[in-house]
Amino acid sequence: MAISQCPGQDKRFWKPGDVFESPCPACGEAIEFWKDDRLRRCRGCGATVANPRFDLGCAKWCKFAEQCLGAPAAKEVEDVAALLVAEMKQVFGEDRRRVRHALSVLDWAERILEREAADPLVVKAAAILHDIGIREAERKHGSSAARWQEAEGPPMAREILSRVGVDAVRTDHIARIIANHHSARECDTPEFRILWDADHLVNLFEEADRPAPAEACRRAERALKTAAGRSLAAERCAPGNTGPAA
């Protein structure tokens, strides 16, 4: 169903200030943003910079939000993912194990995404940020238990996603995935299932405390939710294959 341009996107209704300049955080060069730009590339240093005033508030309630926002271009997805990786690394600091885990989950999620239909921005953002609440859970509750990760992760993810210019609809979806990434109680979207499988594949086949190979393969068969995830696990479990699935 085709929809006409909404007033918020129709430039005839824009006001002074809807086009503005903001300094590049990397080099200070002035960057011109339109209010509906998610990202702009700095002409001075080439950095990808998120719109500091990006806001599509109508997307929180409009039934045409997904059609209006559309699927982000591959280049935009990669730019957002790069910004999120930088944010994730800043949160985890010197905790290289958790940085490595997040990047491994992203790698598996991208492999599954090649074989499953889903929103790539949601999948990649959820993979990068799925454990983002661990340090806050440890600080506030003295524990990194699953329930505290699921409680503390979503608000931190929302703040980061807003900062890099992810729209409200996708932000809500990503936060819901993070809030369920251990329990799977209240989320069962294609994007959630990809993240679930990617996290399990890392835990089963790559982490230092992974189970014995035969047990890992049995657990994978029981736990995974996507056909692609099960296929990748089967490839990993094939006799003679000791490395990650290609």
List keywords for this structure.
246 residues; mainly alpha; Hypothetical protein af1432; two-stranded antiparallel sheet; two-stranded antiparallel ribbon; 10 helices; 4 strands; 52% helix
Strand order of the largest sheet: 1-2
Average of the residue pLDDT scores? 84
Say what the CATH topology of the largest domain is.
Hypothetical protein af1432
Distance between the termini: 39 Å
Rg, Å, rounded = 20 Å
Compute the number of structural domains.
2
CATH superfamily label of the largest domain: Hypothetical protein af1432
Order of SSEs, N→C? EEEEHHHHHHHHHH
The structure class reads: mainly alpha
The count of strands amounts to: 4
How much beta, percentage-wise? 5-15%
Shape designation? elongated
CATH class of the largest domain: Mainly Alpha
Percent helix, as a range, is: 40-55%
CATH architecture of the largest domain: Orthogonal Bundle
Which sheet architecture does the biggest sheet show?
Answer: 2 strands, antiparallel
Secondary structure elements and their pairing?
Blueprint (H helix, E strand, L loop, with lengths): L18 E5 L6 E5 L4 E3 L6 E3 L14 H5 L4 H19 L3 H18 L6 H10 L4 H8 L4 H18 L4 H11 L11 H16 L7 H11 L3 H11 L9
Antiparallel strand pairs: 1-2, 3-4
Helix pairs in contact: 2-3, 2-4, 3-4, 3-8, 4-7, 4-8, 5-6, 6-7, 8-9, 8-10, 9-10
Task: Give an overview of the whole structure.
- The protein has 246 residues and is mostly helical.
- 52% of the residues lie in helices and 7% in strands.
- It folds into 2 domains: 16-54; 57-237, Hypothetical protein af1432 (Orthogonal Bundle).
- The strands form 2 sheets. Strands 1-2 form a two-stranded antiparallel sheet. Strands 3-4 form a two-stranded antiparallel ribbon.
- The longest helix has 19 residues, at 74-92.
